[in-house]
Amino acid sequence: MTKSVALITMSTRAPRAGPHVAALVKSILDPEAKANDITLVPVDLADFKLPVYDEAVIPGMVDTGKPDAPVFAHAHSIAWSTTIKAHDAYVLVLNEYNYGLPGGAKNAIDYLLNQWKGKPVAIVTYGIKGGAFASEQGAHVLGMMGLKVAETRPQLQFKGGLGPEAFAAMLQGEVGEEQLGLWRSEKGADVKKAFEEVAALLKEEKSV
């Protein structure tokens, strides 16, 4: 049976480079997905316009499988949780702000638990230093929540660190072809490896 993997753009601030980075990651992974009978589905967190968590129920009490379990009341919560629940695994394209996990991404993660607990996830970060802190924090949070985090976590660093490429991304939401090409050539193998680890975890689940 074909598996569904959500490729999630986790940046929400405008302007943002996230969609460009996610498009690059998808182009690298499309052949790998096809080879592993996986459907790669783009999801953009910004489309859900999630406010700071505003439900009256605790997220961990939703989608427990029990008939009397609480449910979300707001359309944005229902849309986000339903979307995440629909997939078998995830690739998060995650940005880094101020040396850590962005508030919008953490807020979105905090809406969830049972919808993706136990499922595989790969984390691809980008930033001035490649998003190393966001990668580490994201892996810690998601792992503690019960997701199976791929060991390989690609980190896409802007050429020159805090230079013209990074400023173009931050101020105009632009990522040049040269920068995308560098990431493809220097980190493409890591992106593929992370996805292969997700695919292997999905196959393990199928064989159990």
UniProtKB/TrEMBL annotation:
<dbReference type="Pfam" id="PF03358">
    <property type="entry name" value="FMN_red"/>
</dbReference>
<dbReference type="InterPro" id="IPR050712">
    <property type="entry name" value="NAD(P)H-dep_reductase"/>
</dbReference>
<dbReference type="InterPro" id="IPR029039">
    <property type="entry name" value="Flavoprotein-like_sf"/>
</dbReference>
<dbReference type="GO" id="GO:0016491">
    <property type="term" value="F:oxidoreductase activity"/>
</dbReference>
<protein>
    <submittedName>
        <fullName>Flavoprotein-like protein</fullName>
    </submittedName>
</protein>
<dbReference type="GO" id="GO:0005829">
    <property type="term" value="C:cytosol"/>
</dbReference>
<dbReference type="InterPro" id="IPR005025">
    <property type="entry name" value="FMN_Rdtase-like_dom"/>
</dbReference>
<feature type="domain" description="NADPH-dependent FMN reductase-like">
    <location>
        <begin position="5"/>
        <end position="150"/>
    </location>
</feature>
<dbReference type="GO" id="GO:0010181">
    <property type="term" value="F:FMN binding"/>
</dbReference>
